[in-house]
């Protein structure tokens, strides 16, 4: 007999008891929806979307996990002012996530000596770390897990998608409006197709700039990557976010804009995106 949260005995299950696959299966039994935030391109706002999405769910009263699998460039600790968090180990030998209300957070950044430390790992170590972040963390029961993936279609997004795949898992794809971004982000959409991972939709970030002096809205970058990709791949465009200094300020100061600037038009635009994902 096992203590599997599925309630099944090992005889009823095709997985070998105690194997990594079995541990992942058991961990996912207590995790509800899974959102993997990804993009083919760096610097487009993935971490910003992941952090604010997870916090939005938590502010709705949901139990939420935020897992930062950007092994080489974790931004989540800074964005949530958790740089000094050092995880302890539970009685069951599992890592205790940082907690902000009903939001539980895990990042490789918690394990680094300093924010300047570099992780010099090849694929197998990264794959093993991401496996452990799913199975060896006290996530408890979660309504949703939001994963912040690094850019591209390498080991980290591949591992996260393979581990979390299933009918409860969806990708949230982030792009900026430029065609250069569209070219790279299209690869992420193809990647999702190949892995048979549902795509919840696309967020076009930095769509326009709204002048804080006169309020005039300007499309600084050539526009349209979000719409073009949504149409080409037959997935929803979840919404657009402007370039707004409050987003950068919230990220830099560790106080996400959806909380600190909750009454702003940008927070309202983000809330509409969250509505489509709830
Ligand atoms: P990624 O995770 O794709 O590398 P980040 O979310 O880390 O991108 O964003 C990169 C930088 O751009 C951060 O400083 C962030 O605060 C800032 N940023 C992201 N989106 C916006 C926006 N719409 N307006 C202003 N700054 C933004």
Describe the structure using short key phrases.
single chain, 278 residues, alpha/beta, 10 helices, 9 strands, binds adenosine-5'-diphosphate
Describe the protein in words.
It is built from 10 helices and 9 strands. The chain has 278 residues and is an alpha/beta fold. Strands 1, 2, 3, 4, 5, 6, 7, 8 and 9 form a 9-stranded mixed sheet that branches. The longest helix has 16 residues, at 179-194. The radius of gyration is 19 Å and the shape is globular. The chain starts with 19 loop residues before the first helix and ends with a helix. Adenosine-5'-diphosphate (ADP) binds next to α2, β7, β9 and α8.
Distance between the termini: 36 Å
Tally of helical runs: 10
Care to count the β-strands? 9
Mean pLDDT: 94
β-sheet strand percentage: 15-25%
Query: Radius of gyration in whole Å, from Cα?
Result: 19 Å
Shape: globular
Looking at the chains present, what oligomeric state does this protein adopt?
A: single chain
């Amino acid at each position: 007999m096992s203590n599997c949260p599925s309630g099944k005995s090992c005889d009823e299950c095709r997985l070998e008891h105690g194997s990594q696959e079995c541990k992942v299966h058991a961990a996912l039994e207590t995790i509800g929806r899974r959102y993997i935030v990804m993009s083919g391109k760096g610097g487009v706002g993935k971490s910003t979307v992941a952090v604010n999405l997870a916090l939005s769910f938590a502010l709705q009263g949901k139990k939420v996990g935020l897992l930062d699998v950007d092994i080489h460039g974790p931004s989540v600790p800074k964005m949530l002012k958790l740089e000094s968090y050092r995880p302890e180990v539970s009685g069951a030998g599992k890592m205790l996530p940082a907690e902000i209300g009903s939001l539980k957070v895990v990042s490789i950044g918690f394990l680094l000596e300093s924010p300047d430390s570099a992780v010099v790992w090849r694929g197998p170590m990264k794959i093993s770390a991401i496996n452990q972040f799913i199975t060896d963390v006290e996530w408890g029961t979660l309504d949703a897990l939001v994963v912040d993936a690094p850019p591209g279609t390498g080991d980290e997004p591949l591992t996260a998608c393979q581990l979390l795949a299933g009918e409860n898992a969806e990708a949230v794809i982030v792009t900026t409006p430029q065609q250069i971004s569209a070219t790279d982000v299209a690869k992420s959409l193809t990647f999702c197709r190949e892995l048979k991972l549902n795509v919840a939709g696309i967020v076009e970030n930095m769509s326009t700039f709204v002048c804080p002096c006169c309020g005039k809205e300007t499309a600084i970058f050539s526009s349209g990557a979000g719409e073009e990709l949504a149409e080409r791949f037959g997935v929803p465009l979840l919404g657009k976010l402007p370039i707004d200094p409050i987003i950068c300020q919230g990220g830099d100061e560790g106080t996400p804009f959806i909380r600190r600037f909750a009454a702003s038009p940008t927070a309202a635009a983000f809330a509409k995106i969250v509505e489509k994902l709830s």
